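Intended use. Records like the one below are meant for learning the mapping from a protein sequence to its folded structure. Do not use them to infer anything beyond what is encoded.
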Amino acid sequence: MTWLHYVNWIWDYALPFVAVLASVVLFHEFGHYLVAKWFGITVEIFSVGFGPRIAGFVRGGTEYRVSWVPLGGYVKLKGEAPEEGSPAEPGDLMGRPRWQRFLVFVMGAVFNLLTALVLTTAIFMNGVQEPAYLYGPPIIGAVDPDSPAQAAGLQPGDRVVSFGGKRFDTWKDLQIEMLLSPRQTRPIVVERDGRRITAQLTIEAGRNDVGVPGIAPRTGVVVASLQEGMPAERAGMRRGDRILAIDGRPIHTVEAIFRIIQGAPGRPLRFTIERQGRAFETDIVPVDLQGKGHLGFAPSPVTVTRAYAFPEALVHSVERNLDDATLVFVTFRKLLMRQLSIKTFSGPIDLFVFSGQAAQEGLIPFLQLIAFVSLQLGIINLLPIPPLDGGHLFTLTIEGVIRRELSMQLKERIMQAGLILLLLFMGTVIYFDITKNFFR
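Structure written out for the chain above:
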């Protein structure tokens, strides 16, 4: 790689990754900091970044510093781990009532959840563009050849009524259920020509060990971009045109467009196009490039822009974050029930890739990623596993029930056990992260 490639790599992936991770961690730590200051607990250090100190200053008994590793930050509270039997000094965390300590530990996760809520609300107010099919009825647009879906007799045009005994009204909900059901065979009920048909559908496992259902939605197709001088532009196609049919065959998926065009080099194709509510027909001849037909336009699914005033945006933000939070818990439940593999989880390398991709797509997708990661960080930190905040909250709850402090020795052993468990889990996730991204 040349130096220019390294610069582009840093700009396209490394900086977005740092921005995502740093923002969600800093918001988390700011929650701890704010409540600790409110209760008069001494915050010894508030660091932006980890590792050796670069620069900083002291104000109000707190050292504010910038450190070398720009992946978040941390706060250091006075008296977090006092010696057994030593008296608490003014400003010590452990010298405060349990309810105050509880609020200090919980507020990091609360700030992450608030960050997700605020960002998602702002996104809905600005307007978010999403595929229209996600919120429409689950109608099959294509069936993968030689797939279990084809063997089950599913056909384009079938409307999925239920899967695994659950009824689904939108493709989004059906898609999530199928993604979380790899290597499972479940009954599927579809509606075809006014009658209902039941079959057994096996969901295969794909990359990241998520489910591959073998069916694709009926998305509709619009022209996203045009290549100058190519047949599509010369024939008068415009961005935003909706392609209804080719040679009289209805078109419902992007895959169908590619299949037909690539299979017809040099042969005229009659397109039925809708523009501003009016349908018309035009003949276009794909050019022959290495034995495949090309027209020089990029098709994409039909999208809708969802934008709301503040009250509606807030309601939709709550709904979206509740749906995403539920998905996190469903994933953990399926992992514990061995219905999902740990390969399904994404680690830092996946986040590195996702951050770069989201940044290249634009500000709104990038903010959506930050909101989703912040939500996940908030939820995970509430799990009752030391040394996560949830582990401290669980210990404080136990002490509140028994009305006495646990010994420092017992707390240290609990902390060590939790840390080992957490490191094993993270090590496994990172291992599969590496194998998924570098050894495919």
